[in-house]
Design a protein that fits this description.
This protein has about 240 residues and is α/β, with parallel strands linked by helices. Helices cover about 35% and strands about 15% of the residues. The strands form two sheets. The protein has a six-stranded mixed sheet with strand order 1-8-2-7-9-10, sandwiched between helices. The protein has a four-stranded mixed sheet with strand order 3-6-4-5. The chain is globular, with a radius of gyration of 17 Å. Bound molecules: (2R)-3-sulfolactic acid.
Amino acid sequence: MKEETKTTFEVVLTPALLPLYDLKGKTVVVTDILRATSSMCVAFEYGIRQIIPVSHVEDAMVHRKSGLKTAAERDGQKVEGFDFGNSPFDFMIKELEDQSLVMTTTNGTKAIHLSSNAERIYIGSFLNLQAVADRIIKENKSVVVVCSGWKDKFNLEDTLFAGALAALVENEFDMNDDATIAAKTIWDVQKNDLFSFIKKASHAQRFERLGIDKDIEFCLQQNIYNFVPEVADGMIKVEKDLVQ
Ligand code: 3SL
């Protein structure tokens, strides 16, 4: 009898490991819980039409000079000369409704670019966790969760998200890689107290030093948004805008 093969679910714990994975024909879920993919979700909730992710501050500056709204963050701080940094609270404004926003962040926008070989790229955060889970189950394609990490190093918050997503979809995918098992184990142990766990993370401590730790609490909320931003043709949009 022919063995039934399920689609696979894998986790890439840092972008530095991406060369080891074949993304062709697969769906990537990029996550940067603190804070890029969380902030992108907020911007869409507040009506932004599209986000153009760029890897370099210089590229964002070119767009700024041509009149587009721009957000730039490096090392947790807003880069001088741009309209916004990368706090989710920066994007809770009416002014961005129906606008295009160019965005560059230390790790998140870079991870998006490094995932460009995938068939589809979704933006995942705790804010839209269930929506991402529903989407990948419905599409039934092999999935790779790309954790943006911190400057190519492993981080706790993105791994926690990968584990949360794995827990929601585990009956639908083959999950044999150790990174997924590790992420899911961390999630299972910590799911009832995300905040105190993430407060131990190096990025949370960086936030504390910068006085922006209220962003952590915001970014750890689950399922407050019911949409899945997708990268297509170099732009991030939500479903209603992708359908022509
Ligand atoms: O690295 C990133 O992409 C950012 O999310 C980092 S920060 O949260 O803005 O510090």
